[in-house]
Specification:
Largest sheet: 6 strands, parallel
Mean pLDDT: 95
Structural class: alpha/beta
Low-confidence stretches: none
CATH class of the largest domain: Alpha Beta
CATH superfamily of the largest domain: tm_1862 like domain
Number of helices: 14
Strand order of the largest sheet: 2-1-3-4-5-6
Bound molecules: 5'-deoxyadenosine, iron/sulfur cluster
Radius of gyration: 22 Å
Number of domains: 3
Length: 433
């Protein structure tokens, strides 16, 4: 196989994979390759997700599809499936490179080796060395991601992340501030700080709230967000920052997974239902308009109808602005995978439907309650209609409007109408940049 001249990166799963995908693209571009569509590229990087079985299976169907094309590209499997399955991938599918999420700075060398005909693999997990080896940030969209923390020490019994992403590691304060400045220079006006447990970020006792307070002073950076957080790492300093840091957006994604203390215990979440609800009270005390988001799993082994009723009543008590919900998927190697008392697919389907109906109801109510407000919207992309742009409200709602403003502008918008998944607005007046 000759050395590839063009590449395409396809990311699955979470926002950290989106960030990693962008960084891999920057790396390949710095190595002299040109970006192309998946159908034309000489090298396709599949940046994979291992969180649920269906996500993992998607990789293999994608490889099959790529191999069916007349022109067969070089295929690199990156991301969490690469980490979890390692050399087994070579046995299961014809791929050229397997590279884990902590080793992708070595992608150019692995690709060069594969071009010489040797399938190549790197699933080492050296702590943080990849960041120093990556090229500087190029042009980015108005809303950019920045990984500040990786890995997880929580070991929830259903979850593969501690195995695929490794132990909790925080990037150093100075490196993050430098990357944030580079992102702003490259066009970002909003930065979302990413980590599997981002609120556990720490550098010598500084804590995430100190990082946010420093980033708040970067000229041109209008908005700061962070995701994903664990309830047990939600410290008072961070809660206080929601009360007085203007650029910190009023949005908190705080997964709870279940409303049943009994199930939370079996999940090893190390907090109960009431701890979670009391925590949200403290956040709402400093920022009453905060939009709350969560993740839920239905059908964890042993979940009774009573446990599930506790989840529904927690949803009622919180009133989420948005949330993600999943059927439990047994993952090889996790403690929950050996638990008996599995819940049938039919019961899981039924519970997921009921949960999603409740979450949709609350999302609609939250959006409907926004109508009549005036808020800043960061314009991120063109809409379907001529002259239409789509951006985000402070509460992470998509807002579309007809405007002659430009992508990257922060504009003041009167919210006029709530549609099922977005809001329609009109320009109130151009906000000061
Ligand atoms: N099955 C179903 N959902 C899962 N999640 C994590 N592991 C599993 C699993 N084994 C969900 C959790 C987590 C989100 C990223 O994915 O809700 O917060
Ligand atoms: Fe997985 Fe739990 Fe860690 Fe989140 S906190 S990444 S669900 S182990």
């Amino acid at each position: 196989m000759s050395a590839p001249k063009t590449f395409h990166v396809k990311s699955f799963g979470c926002q950290m994979n989106v960030y990693d995908g962008e960084r891999m693209a920057e790396l390949m571009a710095a190595d002299g390759l040109t970006q192309a569509d998946a159908a034309d590229a000489d090298l396709v990087v599949l940046n994979t997700c291992h969180i649920r079985e269906r996500a993992t299976e998607k990789v293999y169907s994608d490889i099959g599809r790529l191999r069916k094309h007349g022109k067969t590209p070089m295929i690199a499997v990156a991301g969490c499936v690469a980490q979890a399955e390692g050399p087994e991938i070579f046995a299961r599918a014809k791929v050229d490179v397997v590279v884990g999420p902590q080793a992708y700075h070595n992608l150019p060398a692995l690709v060069a080796k594969a071009a010489e005909g040797t399938p190549s693999l790197d699933t080492d997990m050296p702590v943080l060395s990849k960041f120093g080896a990556l090229p500087a940030r190029r042009k980015v969209s108005p809303s950019a991601f920045l990984t500040v923390q990786e890995g997880c020490d929580k070991f929830c019994t259903y979850c593969v992340v501690p195995y695929t992403r490794g132990a909790e590691v925080s990037r150093p304060f100075a490196a993050i501030v430098d990357e944030a400045k580079a992102l702003v220079d490259a066009g970002a006006r909003e930065i979302t700080l990413l980590g599997q447990n981002v609120n556990a970020w720490d550098d010598d006792g500084k804590g995430l709230h100190n990082l946010i307070r420093t980033l708040d002073h970067i000229p041109g950076l209008a908005r700061i967000r962070y995701t994903t957080s664990h309830p047990n790492d939600m410290r008072q300093g961070l809660i206080d920052a929601h009360g007085d840091v203007e650029s910190l957006m009023p949005f908190l994604h705080l997964p709870v997974q279940s409303g049943s203390t009994r199930i939370l215990k079996a999940m090893n979440r190390s907090h109960g239902r009431d701890d979670y609800l009391r925590l949200l009270d403290r956040v709402r005390a400093v920022r009453p308009d905060i939009a709350l988001s969560g993740d839920f799993i239905v059908g964890f082994p042993g979940e009774t109808e009573e446990d599930f009723a506790d989840t529904l009543s927690l949803v009622d008590a919180v009133g989420y602005a948005q949330a993600y919900s999943f059927k439990y998927s047994a993952r090889p190697g996790t403690p929950a995978a050996t638990m008996t008392d599995e819940i049938s697919e039919a019961v899981m389907d039924d519970r997921l439907q009921r949960l999603q109906a409740a979450l949709n109801r609350d999302q609609q109510a939250f959006n409907a309650a926004s109508v009549g407000r005036t808020c800043d919207v960061l314009l991120e992309r063109p809409g379907k209609l001529p002259g239409q742009l789509i951006g985000k409200s402070p509460w992470l709602q998509s807002v579309h409007l007809i405007t002659d403003a430009a992508i990257g502008d922060l504009v003041s918008v009167d919210l006029m109408r709530a549609d099922p998944n977005s809001l329609a607005g009109v320009l109130a007046m151009r906000a000061a940049a």
